[in-house]
Amino acid sequence: MVENIETYDINIDGIIAIGTITDNDQLVPPVTSDITECEQNPIQTIIATATTPAGVSVVWYDAAVGGNIIANPILNVVGTIIYYAEAVDDATGIVSATRSPIILTINALPIIMNVIATDPTTASCPALNDGTITIDATGGTLEYSIDNGVNFQASNVFNGLVEDTYDIVVRNATTMCSTTYSNQVVITAPECDADLSLTKIVDINTPQVGNNVEFTLAVHNDGPSAANGVEVTDLLPDGFTFVSDDASGAYDSNTGIWTIGNMASGDDAILKIIARVNATGDYTNIAEITKSDRNDPDSTPANGIMSEDDMSSVEVEAIPVADL
């Protein structure tokens, strides 16, 4: 390899001679910068680069001293490789005294093996927030995200999840290389139950014809969820004539519909209806919960099944008035 050469005129006792001094330290080695990338699919190719002044070329080697010339200093597999850049003066062929190393690295991506999700259960009503996601992945020390990489945690198990669509990302905590799961994870919550029940009583079981009786209807929501749009139907039979109620317009005596509306878990709603006892007719008064936006675990609104707890009836024995 040609070294740097400088020429000097030397004057000794009047005799001028021309000589050479070899010194390649003045040719600065190339400037390099390590390149680190995360694995791509398909795998990428990293090419080593170096910077030199004008008129200076770069020759790549596989060793800091000696070694072999590398015509194509690249990396196209996961892993790390080191190349060494030597500066060569284009005009003189002299080379730098040292070579500059460059490290090329392609870091492997985490591999997501499987994702298991469980939906919320009614045990967490009304919040419905006991869903889970468990991520099975490999690839070093990992961190996990279910919000498309906005937030990460060290644990691969996420608890307390509600109904939503989740985007899974796993990253290596050291290299920060990440993998996005190919499918969105959808968690679906069940419908929370609202266990509604209805009871009905009458203040006089054996009223005289022409007298008034008072029917009391009570609806209770045993939860665990709120129920909305609740309605009860209590259309008086022909043995009674409607007189009044205390529902302030929420009860329609023509249709028998009592509009309760929304009931939180634990709420009670009460309606009192006053009716006059007719001389003849049907004296069995039946009421049933006929509308709710929630599933009821032990009854179905408006199905007419008397054995269910959302339906109740009372029967009175009308006593004729003596005709004296």
Q: Can you describe this structure?
A:
The protein is mostly beta strands and 324 residues long. The protein has no helices and 27 strands. The strands form 9 sheets. A 5-stranded antiparallel beta sheet has the order 23-24-21-26-27, with no helix packed on it. A 4-stranded mixed beta sheet has the order 4-10-9-7, with no helix packed on it. A hairpin with a 4-residue loop joins β23 and β24. The protein is rod-shaped and about 140 Å long. The model is unreliable at 1-22 (pLDDT under 50).
End-to-end separation in angstroms reads 144 Å
For the biggest β-sheet, the strand order reads 23-24-21-26-27
> What's the helix-strand series?
EEEEEEEEEEEEEEEEEEEEEEEEEEE
How many strands? 27
The average pLDDT value, as a whole number, equals 92
**Uncertain spans, ≥5 residues at pLDDT below 50?**
1-22
Structural class: mainly beta
Cα Rg:
45 Å
Strand content: over 45%
**What characteristic shape results from the CA principal axes?**
rod-shaped
Provide a count of the helices.
0
Largest sheet: number of strands, sense, barrel closure: 5 strands, antiparallel
Helix content percent band: under 10%
